[in-house]
Amino acid sequence: MAVDKLKLSEKLFVQNRLRQEGPTDFRLEPRYRQQLADARQRNTIPELPDPAPYTLIELAALTRQCSLLAELSPGTLAAVFLDTLLARTQALAQCSADGAIAAILLCPRRDHAAHHAVGTALLACLIADALALPADEQRLLGLAALAMNLGAASLQNELAQQDAPLSTLQRQELHIHPIVSSALLRESGIQDARLHLVILTHHEQSNGRGYPFGLPYEAIDPLAQLLHLLDITMAKLLPRSYRQGVPLRSALAGLLSNANSSFDTTTIAHLVKILGLYPAGSFVALESELTAVVIAQTEDNQAPLVASLDQSERIDTSEPGQRVLKNVAAKVSTQQLAQLGRLWPM
Question: What is the pTM of this model?
Fold first, then answer.
């Protein structure tokens, strides 16, 4: 079943901010547009710096640029910049899947929303390649990951620091952010119909309880379903101020056992292969009582290649006495992080 038209809510909160001009064409109401313009006073498209020598530094640079996107006044964003940002993200993913995952986990998160967007785009690049998606769908999925939360970047940063239930206003803003993100892209002249559809519906759920439209499973675009899975995976992997990131084994087990989801098990299996049970950049305790950092996956997802934290030793965890016992949280200094970053060159 396909949906010919998405229906905008009649709630006053929504009507005061958005209007509908076509089946999937939503625009900002003038007063709300001005409110966003007042809050986003940057009117210059940022320039990407030259590529960095290590994946952690490259991800930090891409995250800074993505952070600037959320500061642009309505109508300022250029499609060419989004494409350029995606091309750099794709290059990072192609350079080293393990390096990309390590960068997601280790790069300092000064802007949670931007880090989440670029990290999800990296996962999108990796899974799209694993699923052998057509080039146009790979591009669309990556662009949607970068732009899906443009309408709620400041709210996401708030929530990353908040250990309390959402307020009514926060919940309302969260529920309309896919539409606001789409509308901001429209303001900039980006009209790709399927890109807008994927962004608009990336929080819809198979049980019809998603938002903002409450679509049934058969009406949700497959790329929107895939983006929803990647979005959730990224949210679980990244720590918040009040909790550590969820170990991958637990995160994926939760997705597989979620009765309200219909995430394709084949796709989740690809995610397991990409990330490994112990992702690159995570810290593990070994049988030898050493704490180590995971460098790369091997054919055995229970036995990744690891290094001691001082990088003096590379360890084969398939060897007796060196097997991985569990994930651990490890605090590393800025200097240590810079040294660890050299494990994943571009």
Answer: 0.93
